[in-house]
Amino acid sequence: MDIRPIYDASALARLNRPLQDLHVQHYPGIYKPYDEAAITDYFLTCLADDSYLHWAAYKSETPIGYLQAQIIQKPENAFGYPQHSLHVHQLMVDAAHRRSGAATLLMKTAKEAAQQRGIHRIDLTVRDFNEAAIAFYKSLGYKTDMLRVWMEV
């Protein structure tokens, strides 16, 4: 298995489908049904923005998973110090290749990229229904520091 940057918006969009479908299944009022053209356009926009980073896990020359992250810079304000972090927006590995180490390698690559850039914090969000992802992140040493609550009105 090989981890390297990916610049193919169409491939990213195809890899994204199971993740988008999962979110739609659990939160249909928030997430839109998968639309390959719209998601390809989204990735094209992100690929053109230097703050976004994309890597794929390849088996032979076939991408089997990806990670999308963004470098976040928040200025100091009256309440807090400046923040410089790497935010993981999306991590997805094709179902046939889960538990192969691809997700771990992708997260390791993101950590190395953060360290190379002098970034000392990686954060991400994960939906509460995604127990497998929560367990995975905890196994890598990630901690919970926030709980978002909501209600419909």
Write the layout of secondary structure elements.
Elements: E1 2-5, H1 9-26, H2 36-47, E2 52-59, E3 62-74, E4 83-93, H3 102-116, E5 122-124, H4 131-139
Parallel strand pairs: 4-5
Antiparallel strand pairs: 1-2, 2-3, 3-4
Helix pairs in contact: 1-2
Overview of the structural elements:
This protein has 153 residues and is an alpha+beta fold. Helix content is 35%, strand content 25%. The chain has helices at 9-26, 36-47, 102-116, 131-139, and strands spanning 2-5, 52-59, 62-74, 83-93, 122-124. A five-stranded mixed β-sheet has the order 1-2-3-4-5. A hairpin with an 8-residue loop joins strand 3 (62-74) and strand 4. Helix 1 (9-26) packs across helix 2 (36-47). It starts with a strand and ends in a 14-residue tail after the last helix. 20% of the residues are buried. The mean pLDDT is 96.
Total strands: 5
Count of runs of 4 or more consecutive helical residues: 4
Order of helical and strand elements: EHHEEEHEH
How much helical structure, as a percent, in the residues?
25-40%
Decide which structural class fits the backbone.
Answer: alpha+beta
Cα end-to-end separation = 47 Å
Mean pLDDT: 96
Give a concise summary:
The chain is 35% helix and 25% strand.
Characteristic key phrases:
153 residues, alpha+beta, 4 helices, 25% strand
